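Second opinion, please. Please look over this fold, written as tokens:

===
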Amino acid sequence: VQDAGTEVDNAKAGKGSATLSMAYAGAMFGKAVLAGLDGELRTECAYVQSDITELPYFASKVTFGPFGVEEVHPLGKLSEHEEARLVEAKKQLKGEIEDGLKALDALYSGSKL
């Protein structure tokens, strides 16, 4: 997941990049958060701490409001194919989340990884 932009760039073989898409997604996310803090409920996709899967963090639709995250929406009905892909994605995400949490722990405890 963390190398998705690089993977898109490599797949496009020099015919563009994912930078514009990432910038647009970041702008939409920022606008949703700011609108929410201003009292206007907005829903966008975000990678947040949640309990919609057994993983501690997951990307899903999130409604932002005056107090930040107001609601983390469930995944909804998935096809058999989507369920199988989700199982595979969660395997990879689990390791990435664990690595990220270890890095944060090391950062804040002053130790080296």
